[in-house]
Write a structure and sequence with these properties.
Layout: H1 4-43, H2 48-68, H3 70-95, H4 111-124, H5 128-138, H6 141-162, H7 167-175, H8 177-180, H9 187-201, H10 205-216, H11 224-233, H12 251-269, H13 276-297, H14 302-307, E1 342-344, E2 350-352, H15 353-359, E3 367-368, E4 375-376, E5 382-383
Antiparallel strand pairs: 1-2, 1-5, 3-4
Helix pairs in contact: 1-2, 1-3, 4-5, 4-6, 5-6, 6-7, 6-12, 7-9, 9-10, 9-12
């Protein structure tokens, strides 16, 4: 899907619209100026002689408005704008395929799983009333209640952090400290650092010192440099924004810690950081254009598309969509599957099972590895699990 042409066309329309609006405003300003000057002349007239002059004043105004010729001045810019606007929908229609149903395959979905994913998406977005309505109508309320309460807790913590209240976050981090340690997380220290900076900024040096002894000292053995910087900030109590430590006041620090807490919260729950529904939709949107192009080529072979077990064309997705190891056989150039797993050969190189089967003539003879001169016996090849 070529978006460059659409963007260029949109920019042209925007430019023409700004030019047209500017010209209209210029003409209106001229008309307004002439009318105001004429009104001033008319208001200054009191006697009969002046009233006779009103006709000439109005005649002068009419002549000046005719010289301004607003219609002729506006006509050219308006034509250019209309021309750009008429071309834009055609470019959009040409670049986007309105009917995407031909890239759809008839797959039997597990209704329970789909409903669960949609319901959980609402709860993950904080749309608890919508989630309740959806789960109630689909009958999935029992399985969704646990997730609802979990994400209500998360949104309560995040909302409190938005109001600079770290108590719920600190309570959660301390309660789950044993689960956070295996992840190598220093979230608790980051939360204490935010709280310490808030105390310092408010000008309470004694309280900040007491807080550092009680909450920061336990982290000194592994985070001495960080603790030393925080102690240096004590010298600027109440005026931290004018100090070398002003970066500690950046709102980005709160956003970073909030994001990390959210990721760890989901990790402890065994949930992904991003909603599965959002990830699926985004991946589908990115993968749709090559599928549509492929279907245009296979316009008369829809049955073949429906019977394929794998995607007929490579769909390139960014690394953010890679959730597990993918092996592509260097011989067949196909991704490994459960039926065609990667196989470790005696020489240490890896090929897919089907490639080994073909090269060994169904296991009847040895073959040379494509990467080294070693002779390989297919019977000695073992499935490789990443």
């Amino acid at each position: 899907m070529e978006l460059t042409a659409i963007k260029d066309a949109f920019d042209r329309v925007t430019k023409k619209q700004k030019l047209s609006n500017s010209k209209v405003q210029e003409v209106f300003d001229l008309i307004d100026k002439e009318i105001k000057q004429t009104l001033q002349k008319l208001q200054s007239s009191n006697d009969r002689e002046s009233r006779i002059d009103c006709k000439s004043v109005l005649a002068d105004l009419k002549a000046k408005l005719k010289d301004i010729a607003p219609l002729s001045q506006l006509e050219s810019t308006q034509k250019e704008l209309n021309l750009a606007l008429s071309k834009y929908p055609k470019i959009v229609e040409k670049s986007f395929v309105p009917d995407i149903s031909k890239a759809y395959r008839n797959i039997d979905f597990d209704t329970h799983t789909v409903n669960e994913i949609i319901g959980s998406h609402f709860y993950r977005q904080g749309l608890f009333e919508v989630g309740d309505c959806f789960t109630s109508e689909t009958g999935e309320s029992v399985s969704a209640l646990a997730m609802k309460s979990q994400f209500q807790e998360l949104f309560g913590i995040v909302d409190a952090m938005k109001h600079r209240n770290l108590e719920p976050a600190l309570n959660w981090a301390m309660f789950n400290s044993d689960k956070l340690k295996p992840n190598g997380s220093d979230l608790l220290l980051k939360l204490h650092r935010l709280q310490f900076v808030e105390i310092v900024q408010k000008g309470n040096r004694d309280r900040a010192l007491q807080y550092s002894k009680a909450c920061l000292a336990p982290f000194a053995s592994n985070h001495m440099v960080e603790i030393q910087k925080l102690m240096g900030a004590l010298l600027w109590t109440g005026r931290l924004e004018h100090s070398p430590y002003s970066h500690l006041l950046s709102p980005a620090n709160w956003d970073t810690v909030t994001g990390e807490l959210t990721r760890l919260f989901c990790n402890i729950l065994g949930q992904s950081y991003k909603s599965p529904l959002s990830v699926t939709m985004e991946a589908g949107i990115r993968g749709l254009p090559p599928l549509l192009k492929f279907m245009n080529v296979m316009a008369g072979k829809r049955l073949e598309w429906q019977s394929m077990k794998q995607l007929p064309v490579p769909v390139e997705l960014d690394r953010e969509f890679h959730f597990h190891s993918i092996f592509v056989c260097p011989v067949s150039k196909e991704q490994s599957t459960e039926e065609n797993p990667p196989m470790l050969m005696s020489c240490g190189h890896v090929l897919c099972k089907q490639s080994i089967t073909k090269m060994s003539k169904n296991g009847t003879k040895s073959f040379k590895c494509p990467y080294c001169p070693s002779d390989v016996n297919s019977a000695q090849c073992r499935p490789l699990v990443f």
